[in-house]
């Protein structure tokens, strides 16, 4: 019987021993020379990693492949287009911005690898706009250890606002907790339904959002709290439970694909609650891509939060980004996911500009903490300070009407604690004439 | 020389020593980023070594090995964080204890799964293990309070001894060294296992279950054993992956990881330990080269990988090790690769 396992074999001890001796002696020689190679190549002579006289190098991790790619791959294209525009206008303090985009496929293992590559091999000045809660959570500790500024994380998790633990990490978009509070406040005052429930993603998106809702409505206000895992596209059991609990107002904290599933599934079950959903899952064009010809009927009347300028109106920011979009991107209709990328890239450019003529990692972090990043395209101001690293302080409430975003309120602001939800009536900022922050 | 020829243990020890020296040299000569990929290679080798014993050595199949790796990582994540110091680091000793614990828990779970697997054959076994692999995200979301759902749990980094730190070593280098050491131990144990009575029992069951029974072997017992062994190395591989990415989360242990490890085993040569090493090298570096060096379309590595599997199956069913053996023609008794029950 001839088998792989369990047979003897002819050893070739002579060659092996020689090889072993050779490698062993090599190892000894190498060990005598001190530490491992390649690690001493940091900043010599006071130079700043990623910054030269005419360039500044920043990195980001984005889902270009995998489950999150259909919705979110547009964000990095927008960032890239915006920095092309900035560079065409002469850059920031005379330096061209070099944006390195790494694909992580929305897989935290890959995020960890790619972030290490950007920091250790490409030696970027800062990470900027890295996307995703589970993905970016995986690299927070690494970025702290490497002392790399970590700007404008593209997710509304509260995790980015831990100034003491992660002094270099900053959030950007309105966090899910604030959105939860704002949505609940609106629903309490303006929506007729009496039985409140929630449906959210099984991570910070769902958890922080529900906490915000309960902050306003009270700890036991939600009759049913259902959640989903993005890897399981059957949401019928959860929607069925919401229906059985006779919920007439459902707070949703979902990514676009799951907003579409939730709306579609509840229609199939002949269940028609008032959906009140957070901004991340409410972009009408993304929903249309999933729901096709049923999109208009299913999304009509959905109430949502929104932290971006309104497209298709005379908002000067939306106009400016539409122009840049036409020139440097594929020029398709500007959707809110793409706009997210533009506005985020603008905030990153603001921070880089505020870091000064001779930016260092310290001056960058200091500039953001000193509040030098103004609201810009965002309808609400940023919360940045030394102990607060959360980004935008609020959203306006809108409804989806014929697949367009129709604002229902002025911008509403609140805090990350038990403060009330208030109207913000600060002046809207004008965009700079060349589209590049000073 | 004669001692080496006659003693399996000594021969395997020598091979392990070579592996260790090459591995340590590799870690020593590269920068911190590349050390991370060396660590990844080492942990793939760990998982592939066990899987090749299960698939090639015992004729079973597992499409859900990532689930076992996840158990290893989550065990580390549950054990380590409460033992950190003020800087959020743990000593290397604690990490070793964590890895041993990861092996113990995963082996136990592997044995339980093995009991079920022993009742299943062919496509049913493939389906059952596939379901196991797909269940990980569901389990972590369902037991949200224990596993923190989609985001998973953090795993602290090892603390560098002061002497190493002043010599220019980094955390990345130390993690890579730990991974290489683990892979070496796995290699030694699996190599000895293959040449032991137990290894021969596993092979007998693979080749012909009825004959094995007639020889007095309990088929289910051998199959459970094989599952437990492969689970043990998957556990250590998963624990190491957790150390590398500093956390345990369901996304990192998805179907892609299961198939990558299985791919490494098939490409390297079913049942061959050296093949598991070659296969892991191919799987880990194919992706890196295509994405980072050649900058091809991000979806291309997955396609290239599928193509490679087809080519290997058609052109060299014995995998890389089978090809090497044929080319060399030096080890006649190991020539053709998988036979019998698979």
Automatic annotation (TrEMBL), chain A:
Q: Which Gene3D superfamilies match?
A: 3.40.50.2300
Alphabetically list the UniProt keywords. Answer: Signal
Every copy of the Leucine-binding protein domain together lies at: 55-401
Q: Is Flavoprotein set as a keyword in this record?
A: no
Cross-referenced PROSITE patterns: PROKAR_LIPOPROTEIN
Q: Which domain of life is it from?
A: Bacteria
Q: Which residues constitute the signal peptide according to the record?
A: 1-32
Which residues fall in a compositionally biased region of kind Acidic residues? 415-430
SUPFAM superfamilies, sorted: Periplasmic binding protein-like I (SSF53822)
Q: Where is this region: Disordered?
A: 411-438
Family, according to the entry, reads as follows: Belongs to the leucine-binding protein family.
What name goes with this protein?
A: ABC transporter substrate-binding protein
Please tell me the species this chain comes from.
Nocardioides albidus
TrEMBL record, chain B:
Its membrane topology is listed as: Multi-pass membrane protein
The UniProt record lists the keyword Transmembrane:
yes
At the top level, the lineage of the source is Bacteria
Compartmental location: Cell membrane
Tell me one GO molecular function of this protein: branched-chain amino acid transmembrane transporter activity
Tell me which GO cellular component terms the UniProt record holds.
plasma membrane
Q: What is its main location?
A: membrane
Query: Which UniProt keyword terms apply here?
Result: Cell membrane, Membrane, Transmembrane, Transmembrane helix
Q: Which Pfam families does this one have?
A: BPD_transp_2 (PF02653)
Give the protein's recorded name.
Answer: Branched-chain amino acid ABC transporter permease
**TM stretches of this protein:** 12-30, 36-56, 63-80, 92-117, 124-143, 167-191, 226-245, 302-324
